[in-house]
């Protein structure tokens, strides 16, 4: 779940001497800051990740992952075949980790192909395949390509 707007964070202003924590001046300079106030001084934009994207996959289907999620959950619907999901650019979002999972509906004849975008690779190839029930993998962007950092084997 993303940090809700208005959530308060407590901190001490950088000029406050923290050794004398009980003084009236120090206490007056302590404040609560919202995420919006903290972001005003950020030099880079902050990306808020949603936790899970649910996809009903079917043979011949395809999509491109544009949502800022860190878990993609597949449920197979329909006949045998391959569903392809294309990752976002590894160079656009370096150091991002995405986990892909599925339930019992994905089998050897119902496959999920996790594809690298054009000009990039995933583990040195064009795609990585999930083709077992209760399977999954985690991929990580090193800023140039996608790397499978964890794969479940059954």
Briefly note the CATH topology name of the largest domain.
Jelly Rolls
Largest sheet: 5 strands, mixed
Task: Estimate what percentage of residues fall within beta strands.
Answer: 35-45%
Biggest sheet, spatial arrangement of strands: 3-5-7-10-11
* Approximate shape: globular
Unreliable residue runs: none
Radius of gyration: 22 Å
Mean pLDDT: 81
Distance between the termini: 30 Å
Any guess at the CATH architecture of the largest domain? Sandwich
In the residues, how many domains can be counted?
2
SS-derived structural category = mainly beta
Share in helix: under 10%
Walkthrough of the structure:
There is one protein chain. With 154 residues, the protein is mostly beta strands. It has helices spanning 24-29, 35-39, and strands at 8-12, 30-34, 50-57, 62-64, 69-76, 81-86, 97-102, 110-115, 127-130, 136-141, 146-151. It has two domains: 1-48, no CATH class; 50-151, Sandwich (Jelly Rolls). It is built from two helices and eleven strands; from the N terminus they run E-H-E-H-E-E-E-E-E-E-E-E-E. The strands form three sheets. Strands 3-5-7-10-11 form a five-stranded mixed beta sheet, with no helix packed on it. A hairpin with a 4-residue loop joins strand 10 (136-141) and strand 11. The longest helix is centred in the N-terminal third of the chain and has 6 residues, at 24-29.
């Amino acid at each position: 779940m993303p940090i809700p707007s208005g959530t308060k964070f407590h901190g001490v202003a950088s000029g406050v001497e923290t050794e004398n924590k009980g003084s009236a001046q120090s206490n007056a300079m302590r404040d609560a800051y919202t995420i919006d106030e903290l972001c005003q001084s950020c030099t880079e934009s902050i990306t808020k990740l949603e936790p899970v994207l649910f996809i009903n996959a079917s043979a011949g289907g395809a999509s491109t992952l544009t949502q800022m999620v860190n878990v993609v959950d597949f449920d197979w619907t329909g006949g045998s075949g391959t569903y392809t999901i294309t990752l976002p650019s590894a160079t656009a979002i370096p150091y991002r980790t995405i986990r892909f999972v599925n339930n019992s509906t994905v089998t050897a004849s119902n496959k999920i192909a996790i594809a690298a975008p054009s000009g990039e690779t995933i583990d040195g190839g064009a795609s990585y395949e999930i083709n077992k029930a209760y399977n999954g993998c985690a991929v990580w962007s090193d800023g140039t390509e996608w790397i499978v950092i964890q794969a479940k084997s059954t």
